[in-house]
Amino acid sequence: SLSGKTAVVTGSNSGIGLGIAWEMARAGANVILNSFTDRDEDHALAREIADQTGVEARYIRADMSRGDDCRALIEQAGSCDILVNNAGIQHVAPIDQFPVEKWDAIIAINLTSAFHTTAAALPKMRAAGWGRVVNIASAHGLTASPYKSAYIAAKHGIVGMTKTVALETAEEPITANAICPGYVLTPLVEAQIPDTMKEYDMSRDDVVRNVMLARQPSKEFATVEQLGGTAVFLCSDAAAQITGTTISVDGGWTAL
Ligand code: NAD
């Protein structure tokens, strides 16, 4: 059980981050939810997790595109035994037409935020004598696709940073690993289905199977519960010697 531990999950008012927060809470960890929005719904999500699981849950606003916000999130969390760097955005365009501000935002939110949160969290983990860094990379941290230069650069970057953090903490009771999901049916992905149906004049089933899951041999989406379960596993005693590596949850994508 993760009872008594605190998990900080960046970008966790939706999708995979929220799924991970739920599974951490079900495993007994107190959780800190985060996004840049600070709406009533965000605080309500934290109350719902606390009510349903009995752990302490709190929402903290912080913009992961800003280094000072990233560090302030870890300070305001108090304890940070488990750090899940999950916040991420996407933009799709050929590299010669890729908007500079999109490149900068993707590198800041998907990669540099994890540098700041990890730098702020490691001293707390060292003081507590235990720590887990779980970075949400992607199948695109290990392989590429066209038109996603910034995302793929950031995700390969976070896989590399994960290995470095693992080496810097190798002799301590701290591990650092990256989870590499394939396609997960989050609100972000769901929102792309109607446009893609129109673009290719395809049914929903054809878009899912032949466009989205074209490279996912299982032909099934991974779920946010499965991602949460994988993150909880990385925090278990069984995973104490797993560090500096990636776990793919991608239905066979990277086996192709
Ligand atoms: P999502 O859009 O549902 O969630 C993204 C989260 O990041 C939201 O909670 C959002 O509030 C937060 N966020 C965005 N910008 C932020 C900012 N500036 N500051 C703080 N929070 C911010 O998307 P998701 O699919 O759940 O993605 C979560 C992570 O999983 C991302 O890193 C993404 O790259 C990765 N991932 C997703 C898939 C997939 O198929 N959905 C696959 C592989 C990897």
Instruction: Look at the structure and give the mean pLDDT.
Output: 97
Count of folded domains: 2
Name every ligand kind in the structure. nicotinamide-adenine-dinucleotide
Widest sheet: strand ordering? 3-2-1-4-5-6-7
Features of this protein?
Rossmann fold, 7 strands, 9 helices, alpha/beta, binds nicotinamide-adenine-dinucleotide, 46% helix, single chain, 256 residues, globular
Textual characterization of the structure:
The chain has helices spanning 15-26, 40-53, 67-77, 100-128, 149-168, 187-190, 192-200, 204-212, 224-234; strands spanning 6-9, 30-35, 57-61, 82-85, 131-136, 174-181, 246-249. It has 256 residues and is α/β, with parallel strands linked by helices. It has two domains: 6-183 and 222-255, NAD(P)-binding Rossmann-like Domain (Rossmann fold), CATH 3.40.50; 185-220, no CATH class. The longest helix has 29 residues, at 100-128. Residues 11-17, 34-36, 63-65, 86-89, 109-110, 136, 138, 181, 183-184, 186-189 line the site of nicotinamide-adenine-dinucleotide.
What's the arrangement of secondary structure elements?
Layout: E1 6-9, H1 15-26, E2 30-35, H2 40-53, E3 57-61, H3 67-77, E4 82-85, H4 100-128, E5 131-136, H5 149-168, E6 174-181, H6 187-190, H7 192-200, H8 204-212, H9 224-234, E7 246-249
Parallel strand pairs: 1-2, 1-4, 2-3, 4-5, 5-6, 6-7
Helix pairs in contact: 1-9, 3-4, 4-5, 7-8
